[in-house]
C-alpha cells in the first residue's frame, strides 16, 4: 500500500479496498520497522492514530468522506498538537504538551486526515541538515551516511521512506524545499499569509510559512487545499479564497503549459551549483520546452545577497521570538536556581543547543542600539531590493525555474563545523522567503544515486499554477515515483 500516492490511497479507501484502520496500521508497522535507523519521528501517536482512523472509517460509512478522510499523515514537531508533546526538536520543549492544536493541524484533522505522529526537525527549525535536533540526527533513506536536509528532515525522510504518505513542514529559508530535494520528494511552500501560522512555533515570523512534503504535486495539492485559508488568529493571514488546487489539476496541464514563459535567473547558475544538479536542471528545462514552455533568461541582481540578508533578519526575529523561553512559564527549567537571573541563564543555556544560541547571539547583536542601522536596517533594505528583483522578473515571465540546492545530500557531519558552508545550502531557496513568494521543489533526477530537485517559484498566490506546472512535469517524468530501494514495494 505504501508505494501509493495520497490520491491512489484515497481511491483505495473510497472503493473499500482497505479501511483507514488497516492503512494506518500498515504505516505504523512500517514506522516500527524502519524508524529505528532513520529517526524521522520524535513521537509516534499510534493509539490516537488508530482512534482517528476508526472515526474516519465511520464517517465514510455515514457518507461523510472527503478526499483526505482516513489518510495517514505526519506533522513536523513545530506544529502544536493538543495533548501530544510538541518539542520543536529542542530540549527546551521536551516536556511541553500543547493545550491546543495549530490551525494547520486542526484543519487537516477536520478534513479527516489521521495523524501518525510528530516528525524530527532541526532545533527550532534552524538548520539545513537535521543534525541540530535534541532527539538526534535523521538519516537520508537513500543513503544512511547522508543527511536528509533540514529543517523538515524528519518529514522528508518519513515520506521518502514511505513511512507516511505525506507530511507537513515549515519553510523559513528553504526548510520544505531543501529536504524535499535531498530526499527525492515534492515540497511546496505557499505564499506568505496563505496558511495560518497560529500554533506553529515561531522562528522568524516574517518568513515562516507552513506547507507540504509529499510524493507528488497532486498529493501536495490535496493537503495544501485543506491547510490554506484565512485565520483571524494570525494577523498576517490573508483573506482570500482558496482555489480547489487538486481539482484544478484535472484539467489538461499540457494545454495550460503551452506558451508559458519561465525565467531562468542567471544568479541560479553560479559557481556553487554542482554539475550533476545543473544537468538535472537542464534536462528538466528540455522537458518543459518540449511541453511548449519558453525559457527566458532573467536576472535577480540582488539574489546573491539573500544569504547574508536572511542571516541578519532571521536571527533578529528569532532572538525576539525565543525570549519567551525563560524557564518560568513553560518548557525547560534548570535545577535549583539560586535567584531569578540564575534561573534565566541556566534554563536557557541548558535548554537550547549550540545553533540556536548562535542565532540568538547574532540576532541580539544586530538589533542592539549600536549596530541596528548597520546590520538590521540595512538587511531590511536589501530585502526590499530582492523582492523588487522578483517583481521585475515576474513582469516578464510567469514562473521562475532553477535548482533547489547546490548539490545532492551531503555526508553527515560534513558541514557541522562550518556554519557558513551550511548556510550557503540555502542560497537558492531563501529569496522566495524574503520576498514571500510561493515555491516548490520537484524531483528531477539523480546524481550518483542521490536525488536532485528543481525549484519553481511562482508569483504571489499563484499556487494553483505552480502546482499545475509541477504536475505537468510529473505527468511526463517518473522521478517522483522513485523510492529508495530498501523502502519501495515488497
Ligand atoms: N536552513 C535555514 C536556516 O537554518 C532555513 C531554515 C528553515 O527554513 N526553517 O535557518
Name the descriptors.
490 residues; binds glutamine; 17 helices; alpha/beta; globular; eight-stranded mixed sheet; Amidase signature (AS) enzymes; 11 strands
Summarize it.
This protein is α/β, with parallel strands linked by helices. It contains 17 helices and eleven strands. Helix 5 (153-160) runs parallel beside helix 6 (177-183) and helix 7 packs antiparallel against helix 17.
Task: Write the topology of this structure.
Layout (H helix, E strand, L loop, with lengths): L5 H10 L4 H19 L2 E4 L1 H16 L10 E5 L26 H8 L3 E6 L33 H8 L5 E5 L6 H7 L2 E4 L20 E5 L2 H11 L17 H4 L4 H5 L3 E5 L9 H16 L3 E5 L7 H16 L18 H12 L2 H14 L4 H23 L4 E5 L15 H5 L6 H6 L3 E9 L2 E9 L4 H14 L14
Parallel strand pairs: 2-3, 7-8, 7-9
Antiparallel strand pairs: 1-3, 4-6, 5-6, 5-10, 9-11, 10-11
The tally of strands reads 11
Strand order of the largest sheet: 4-6-5-10-11-9-7-8
Biggest sheet details: 8 strands, mixed
CA-atom Rg in angstroms: 21 Å
User: Tell me, what is the CATH class of the domain at 6-257?
Assistant: Alpha Beta
Low-confidence blocks of residues? none
Number of helices: 17
Would you list the SSEs in sequence order as H and E? HHEHEHEHEHEEHHHEHEHHHHEHHEEH
Shape: globular
Bound molecules: glutamine
Quote the beta fraction. 5-15%
Please identify which CATH superfamily of the domain at 6-257 we are dealing with: Amidase signature (AS) domain
Mean pLDDT: 97
Structure classification:
alpha/beta
Q: In the CATH scheme, what's the topology name of the domain at 6-257?
A: Amidase signature (AS) enzymes
Indicate the percent of residues in helices: 25-40%
- What is the CATH architecture annotation of the domain at 6-257? Alpha-Beta Complex
Amino acid at each position: 500500500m505504501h508505494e501509493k500516492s495520497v490520491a491512489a490511497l484515497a481511491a483505495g479507501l473510497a472503493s473499500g479496498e482497505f479501511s483507514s484502520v488497516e492503512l494506518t496500521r500498515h504505516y505504523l508497522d512500517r514506522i516500527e520497522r524502519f524508524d529505528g535507523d532513520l529517526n524521522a519521528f520524535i513521537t509516534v501517536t499510534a493509539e490516537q492514530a488508530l482512534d482517528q482512523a476508526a472515526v474516519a472509517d465511520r464517517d465514510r460509512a455515514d457518507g461523510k468522506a472527503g478526499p483526505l478522510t482516513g489518510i495517514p499523515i505526519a506533522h513536523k514537531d513545530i506544529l502544536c498538537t493538543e495533548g501530544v508533546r510538541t518539542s520543536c526538536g529542542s530540549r527546551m520543549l521536551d516536556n511541553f504538551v500543547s493545550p491546543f492544536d495549530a490551525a494547520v493541524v486542526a484543519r487537516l484533522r477536520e478534513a479527516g486526515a489521521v495523524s501518525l505522529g510528530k516528525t524530527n526537525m532541526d532545533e527550532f527549525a534552524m538548520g539545513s541538515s537535521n543534525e541540530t535536533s535534541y532527539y538526534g540526527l535523521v538519516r537520508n533513506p537513500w543513503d544512511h551516511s547522508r543527511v536528509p536536509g533540514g529543517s523538515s528532515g524528519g518529514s522528508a525522510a518519513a515520506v521518502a521512506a514511505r513511512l507516511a504518505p505525506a507530511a507537513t513542514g515549515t519553510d523559513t529559508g528553504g526548510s520544505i524545499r531543501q529536504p524535499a530535494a535531498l530526499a527525492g520528494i515534492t515540497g511546496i511552500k505557499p505564499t506568505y499569509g496563505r496558511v495560518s501560522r497560529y500554533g506553529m512555533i515561531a522562528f522568524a515570523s516574517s518568513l515562516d510559512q507552513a506547507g507540504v512534503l509529499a510524493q507528488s504535486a497532486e498529493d501536495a495539492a490535496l493537503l495544501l487545499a485543506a491547510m490554506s485559508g484565512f485565520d483571524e488568529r494570525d494577523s498576517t493571514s490573508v483573506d482570500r479564497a482558496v482555489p480547489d488546487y487538486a481539482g484544478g489539476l484535472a484539467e489538461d496541464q499540457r494545454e495550460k503549459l503551452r506558451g508559458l514563459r519561465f525565467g531562468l535567473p542567471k544568479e541560479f547558475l553560479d559557481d556553487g551549483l554542482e554539475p550533476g544538479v545543473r544537468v538535472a536542471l537542464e534536462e528538466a528545462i528540455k522537458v518543459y520546452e518540449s511541453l511548449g514552455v519558453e525559457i527566458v533568461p532573467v536576472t535577480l541582481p540582488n539574489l546573491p545577497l539573500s544569504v547574508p540578508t536572511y542571516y541578519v533578519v532571521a536571527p533578529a526575529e528569532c532572538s525576539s521570538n525565543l525570549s519567551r523561553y525563560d524557564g518560568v512559564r513553560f518548557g525547560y527549567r534548570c535545577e535549583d536556581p539560586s535567584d531569578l537571573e540564575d534561573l534565566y541563564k541556566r534554563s536557557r543555556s541548558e535548554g537550547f543547543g549550540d545553533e540556536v544560541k548562535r542565532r540568538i547571539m547574532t540576532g541580539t547583536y544586530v538589533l542592539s542600539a549600536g549596530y541596528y542601522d548597520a546590520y538590521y536596517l540595512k538587511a531590511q533594505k536589501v530585502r526590499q531590493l530582492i523582492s523588487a528583483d522578483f517583481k521585475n522578473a515576474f513582469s516578464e515571465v510567469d514562473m521562475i525555474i532553477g535548482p533547489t540546492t547546490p548539490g545532492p545530500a551531503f555526508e553527515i557531519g560534513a558541514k557541522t563545523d562550518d556554519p557558513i558552508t551550511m548556510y550557503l545550502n540555502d542560497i537558492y531557496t531563501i529569496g522566495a522567503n524574503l520576498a514571500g513568494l510561493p515555491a516548490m521543489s520537484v524531483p528531477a533526477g539523480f546524481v550518483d544515486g542521490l536525488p536532485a530537485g528543481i525549484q519553481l517559484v511562482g508569483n504571489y498566490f499563484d499556487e494553483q499554477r505552480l502546482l499545475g506546472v509541477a504536475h505537468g512535469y510529473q505527468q511526463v517524468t517518473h522521478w517522483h515515483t522513485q523510492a529508495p530501494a530498501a523502502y519501495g514495494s515488497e
